[in-house]
Structures are given as structure tokens and as C-alpha cells.
Amino acid sequence: MSRQNGSQPKPTQVDITMGALKNLDNHERILVALYYYEGLTPEEISELLGKDARNIQQQLDQIHAKIAHFLQVEEASSVLTARVYG
Question: Given its phi and psi angles, is residue 57 left (phi above 0), alpha (psi -120 to 50 degrees) or beta?
């Protein structure tokens, strides 16, 4: 996506989040999709997948921490890049 003047838009939170999602495995992406995009509860996901609800909640907590870590790394990288090139 480019602007009319030819400059590239700055990355948005959505872009950064999509980058973090690329670092998840397929099972983790499925859980993210079911929980965040479909709005299912851990109990509903557990019924759908035939897994224990506590296990699903633990996996969601781990995924959340993993995404938060990737976002912090990307943000730190952006700040460093801005200092070097800005």
C-alpha cells in the first residue's frame, strides 16, 4: 500500500501484530483465530478441539506472552533503526 506522493506508510499496529503472528506455529494461530477473531471462550475451544479447557487457557496465556515478546522486540528494533537512520 503506497500513498499518492509515493512515500510508504508507516507500519501500523496491525502490521506489527501480523508480523508477530507469523512467528506462531499453526496450532497457535488456530487458537488465536478461535479466541480473538471468532470470540470463543477457552471452554468452547476445548469442546471444539476435544482438549481440556485449562490446557487451552494455559496455551492462550503462553501465546499472549509470546506475541507480547515479539512486539517488544519489533518495537525496540524500530527505535534502534530510527536512531541509526533518523
Answer: alpha
H/E run at residue 72: helix 53-85
* H-helix or E-strand spanning residue 27: helix 26-32
Q: For residues 85 and 57, what is the distance between their CA atoms, to the nearest angstrom?
A: 42
pLDDT average, residue stretch 26-44: 93
CATH code for the domain defined by 23-85: 1.10.10.10
Q: Would you say 47 and 78 are in contact if contact means Cβ atoms under 8 Å apart?
A: no
* CA–CA distance, 45 with 51 (Å, rounded to integer): 8
pLDDT of residue 20: 73
Q: Which cell goes with 39?
A: 470470540
Q: What are the cell numbers at 27?
A: 496450532
- Between CA 6 and CA 45 the distance in angstroms is 44
**Distance separating alpha carbons of residues 4 and 57, to the nearest angstrom:** 45
